[in-house]
Specification:
This protein is mostly helical and 376 residues long. It has 18 helices and seven strands. The longest helix has 14 residues. Helix 15 packs across helix 16 and helix 16 packs across helix 17. A three-stranded antiparallel beta sheet has the order 1-3-2, with no helix packed on it. Strands 4-5 form a two-stranded antiparallel ribbon. Strands 6-7 form a two-stranded antiparallel sheet. It is elongated, with a radius of gyration of 25 Å.
Length: 376
C-alpha cells in the first residue's frame, strides 16, 4: 500500500505527501533508477548506456521501464506549491533508434491487472507490488532483515544480482514466502525475524564462529544510528530535545526533514542526507570527531545539565547516593549496577567537588560506555 501510494502520488505537494516523490525524481531516468533500487533492490543505472555486461538487464529494458514515468506532469500552484498529475502524452526516446519506446516490464508474469489501470504509473504499481514479482518481496524481506541483523542476507541490500548471491538462500526464500502469504505485513515479518534464534543470539563467539561475518551465527556489535543515539541520550538524561519547527517532544527518529538541525549531532553521527536511494548514505563508522563530541560535546552536556532533566530531579528528590546511582544505571543501562560498579560510582561521587557534579560525571560515563553506544 505504501509503495503503491508513492508510485501513483498525485495532487498538491502540500496536501498529498506522496506527490513529492516525483517532484524530486522529475525525469524518467531518475525515477527508473530510484524505483528499481529502492523497491526491487536492483541497480539499473549500468544498463542506461549499454546492455549490462554481467547481468540479464538490457539497455532497451531501461528505457522501456522509464516509459512508465514519461507521462508525469507538473503544474505550478500558489506559494511554491506544485501539482503532480498524469498526462495523456509523453514518451521516452530510445537512444539506439531515436524513436519513442513503448512501456514494458523487465520481467513478466501472470496475474498483473494492467487492463484495469488508468495510467502508466498505476500499471507499474500493479506489476511492482504483485505477489508474483520475484524482486519486490525479496528485496523488502532482505532489507528489513538487515535492519535487525546489521547485514543483509544479500549484501548490499540494494544490489540484488546473480553475481551477488544470498549467504543463505533458503532463509531468504522462507522470509519472502512468509511475507507474501501475510499480505505484505511488515509486523509479521518483523515478528518472524525477532523470534528467531539468529536474532536472539549473543555477541559471544566460540572457536567455530569467531571469524564468521556472513552466516549470522552470532550477533555483531554495531553503533546505534544517529537518531537512535540521540533519542537514547534524551531518554537516559530525561531531557527533551528541541528541534526547530517541530513540536515539543518530537523524537529524532520522527524528523521528516534531514535539514532540521543540519550540521549538528545527527549529521556528525551519520544521519543520511536522503539525496539518493542508496542504503550506503547512512554511515556507522566511528570517528575521532564523534569521540570528542561524546566526551565534551554540547548536546550531551546540555542534556545532562538540563535543570528539568533526570539528574537535577534526582538531586532534589533522592538524598540516598546508593539509590541515586541505581536510578542512573536503570535509566542508561536498563539494569541496576553490579557490586563493583556501585562501589566505583559511590567512591567517585564521594571524591567529587559536589554531589551534583559526581552524578553528572556518572551519567556522562554511562553514555560513553560501549554498552550504551552499541546494539548488542
Amino acid at each position: 500500500q505504501f509503495v503503491r501510494e508513492v508510485l501513483t502520488g498525485t495532487g498538491s505537494a502540500y496536501e498529498s505527501p506522496a506527490a513529492n516523490y516525483f517532484r524530486v525524481a522529475r525525469d524518467s531516468d531518475t525515477a527508473t533508477e530510484n524505483v528499481t533500487q529502492l523497491f526491487l533492490g536492483v541497480r539499473f543505472s549500468c544498463n542506461k548506456c549499454h546492455d549490462h555486461p554481467f547481468e540479464r538487464w538490457t539497455q532497451a529494458q531501461y528505457y522501456q521501464l522509464g516509459a512508465y514515468f514519461a507521462q508525469v506532469g507538473y503544474k505550478p500552484g500558489q506559494s511554491g506549491d506544485e501539482f503532480v498529475y498524469d498526462r495523456k502524452v509523453g514518451e521516452v526516446i530510445f537512444p539506439r533508434t531515436g524513436l519513442a519506446i513503448a512501456p514494458e516490464f523487465p520481467v513478466t508474469f501472470a496475474a498483473v491487472k494492467q487492463q484495469h489501470a488508468d495510467t502508466r504509473r498505476e500499471a507499474l504499481a500493479d506489476w511492482l507490488t504483485s505477489p508474483q514479482n520475484p524482486f519486490f518481496a525479496k528485496s523488502t524481506a532482505n532489507r528489513i532483515w538487515s535492519y535487525f541483523m546489521g547485514r543483509g542476507i544479500i549484501d548490499p541490500v540494494d544490489d540484488i544480482r546473480g553475481s551477488n548471491p544470498p549467504s543463505n538462500a533458503p532463509l531468504l526464500d522462507a522470509l519472502t514466502q512468509g511475507f507474501v502469504k501475510s499480505g505484505f505485513d511488515l509486523r509479521h515479518l518483523m515478528r518472524t525475524i525477532t523470534a528467531s534464534r539468529a536474532y536472539q543470539s549473543s555477541i559471544s563467539t566460540n572457536r567455530w564462529n569467531e571469524d564468521d561475518t556472513v552466516n549470522f551465527s552470532h550477533q555483531t556489535p554495531r553503533r546505534l544510528t544517529a537518531e537512535q543515539l540521540l533519542d537514547a541520550i534524551s531518554m537516559a538524561t530525561g531531557s527533551v530535545q528541541r528541534y526547530p519547527g517541530a513540536p515539543m517532544g518530537t523524537r529524532a527518529q520522527q524528523l521528516s526533514d534531514t535539514r532540521v538541525s543540519a550540521g549538528g549531532f545527527l549529521d556528525l553521527f551519520g544521519r543520511p542526507a536522503r539525496e539518493s536511494p542508496c542504503e550506503c548514505e547512512r554511515t556507522s563508522e566511528v570517528s575521532l570527531a564523534q569521540a570528542m563530541n561524546l566526551m565534551n560535546g554540547e548536546t550531551i552536556a546540555n542534556s545532562i545539565a538540563d535543570p528539568k532533566g533526570r539528574v537535577a530531579k534526582l538531586m532534589a528528590d533522592q538524598p540516598d547516593n546508593v539509590k541515586l546511582v541505581e536510578e542512573l544505571y536503570l535509566a542508561a543501562m536498563s539494569r541496576p549496577p553490579k557490586k563493583a560498579e556501585l562501589e566505583a560510582a559511590l567512591k567517585h561521587m564521594g571524591s567529587s567537588k559536589d554531589r551534583a557534579e559526581g552524578a553528572q560525571d556518572l551519567m556522562w560515563a554511562l553514555i560513553n560506555s560501549p554498552a550504551f553506544l552499541f546494539n548488542r
